[in-house]
Amino acid sequence: MIALGGVIGAGLFVGSGAGIAAAGPSIVVAYAISGLLVMLVMRMLGEMSAARPASGSFSVHAERAIGPWAGFAVGWLFWVLLCVGVAVEAIGAAGIISGWLPGTPSWLWVAVLMAVFCGSNLAAVSNFGEFEFWFAALKIAAISLFLIVCVLAICGVLPGTHAPGAADLTGDGGFLPKGANGLIVGLLASVFAYGGLETVTIAAAESRDPVAGVGRAVRTAMWRIAVFYVGSMAVIVTLIPWNDPAVVGHGPYVAVLDHLGIPGAGRVMDVVILVALMSAMNANIYGASRMAYSLVDRGQGPRALRRTSGGVPRRAVVASSAFGFLAVLLSYWWPTTVFSWLLNMVGAAVLVVWAFIAVAQLRTRRRLEREEPHRLVVRMWAYPYLTWAALVGIGVVLVLMARQPDTRTQLYFTGGATLALAAAGYLRQRAGRRG
């Protein structure tokens, strides 16, 4: 359920509207291409995590396969990414609640949400699993119901509707209304909507049967991506014109439900989006605390965060939550400077993480085949060809980011942060060797 819920986030419910506005109906192709790339990355990560489960996940794999500097760099970059994500999600969730209860300050709801999820993660790891189970169940139920309603409307079976045919797919400029450039912008928007799946392998290390859990989650990634992401985009652009202002203004899901005359669609989707944001907060605090603890346990961070109690790295949980809350304060104090720098710094971080995963898998697979072939319970498809194809795909996305003014700044900031962390990790590695 964590794997299933992790793939459905606020980026899909709201952020996909910008991709539809940029690419038009071809957003379906964009999500399919980026979904294929994510599927390859998850298969690689699943292979390594099933062979050697670790709460540090890809950071541990990168350290073993490439070197301590790589584990340090990708681990702390991912930690910052998750903590900034906690801040962004808390701000979004507080905004929704403040809209329901006008007159209440948003910072108050940020503090309440931070306290709730920090507290749940401090208590026991089972609390994280319990929260995520119900969050995932609600999100899956909502999107499944949405897809059923839309398919009925497309078939003309839903009362008060008629089958739209291909009018919205081929009208208003055709399937590629803004040409290849629009498809590229849509592709970039879709790539980052898939972030969050990596937490599954972190959680797997604390499950009863991590090998079976990782294998099951990775093997079902294909139909999850096809149904929830590509399927959603397909029904949305079939039922409503891609250039309808409501797609961006209200979000594509609300726009489609309003278009179909479903009463109370906006309020219902507000609840679903709030759940998605709270789910992401919960998962990000959990993932950040485990990544920080794993790094510290390997001598890659302040030893004060190493202490555990009741099987929970409580100091790492508090430190991760505190950094997230600090980022929220920065968004109030210096929204256009310091907070903007933080957002840009993690803008392309997920691509850096995926690249490290691919390189680590290339090296780890050779070592496992030579020394411990029995550990290869989950195998990467068509190794090493699809691994190299994924690396090329990641490189292409980075090049496309450099070509777009809106994403070029993010690429530069993320590149600078990655180089700085890699340099710090390399210096630590050399100092450790001399010691």
From TrEMBL:
PROSITE patterns: AMINO_ACID_PERMEASE_1. Residues 1-404 form the Amino acid permease/ SLC12A domain. The keyword Cytoplasm does not apply. Coiled coil: none annotated. Pfam families: AA_permease. It is a multi-pass membrane protein. It comes from the Bacteria. It is found in: Membrane. Keywords: Amino-acid transport, Membrane, Transmembrane, Transmembrane helix, Transport. The chain crosses the membrane at residues 27-45, 66-87, 107-128, 140-160, 180-200, 221-242, 262-281, 316-335, 341-360, 381-403, 409-427. The keyword Transport applies. Its main location: membrane. Gene3D superfamilies: Amino acid/polyamine transporter I. This is Amino acid permease. It comes from Streptantibioticus parmotrematis.
